[in-house]
Design goal:
Thiol Ester Dehydrase, Chain A, alpha+beta, about 90 residues
């Protein structure tokens, strides 16, 4: 089994392991709530059939919020970029 099925299998394995850790320590489980967007830019349209890849990195993290940089690409072309502010809340 290779290709996309191997990638999905690896992703599922990481997800299960992560959930196992989170069940043991509820303090680690935080939910991000969208609070704002900045420096947004749409570079090209995305149409049906395009493979859209999303990459998100943490620019700054505090105890109750984080600022993220997001980039959406189709092939080698950037389709959109933005900075996102999220407020973090615990599950309990």
């Amino acid at each position: 089994m290779g290709g996309i099925f191997k990638t999905f299998g690896n992703t599922w394995s990481i997800t299960k392991t992560s959930m196992s850790v989170l069940r043991k320590d509820k303090e680690l489980l935080l939910f991000p709530f969208f609070a704002g967007i900045d420096k947004e830019g749409f570079r090209r349209p995305v149409v049906v059939g395009d493979a859209l890849y999303l990459e998100v990195s943490v620019l700054q993290q505090r105890s109750e919020s984080c600022k993220l940089q997001g980039t959406a690409t189709v092939g080698d072309e950037i389709a959109a970029q933005s900075q996102i502010l999220a407020v973090l809340r615990s599950s309990h």
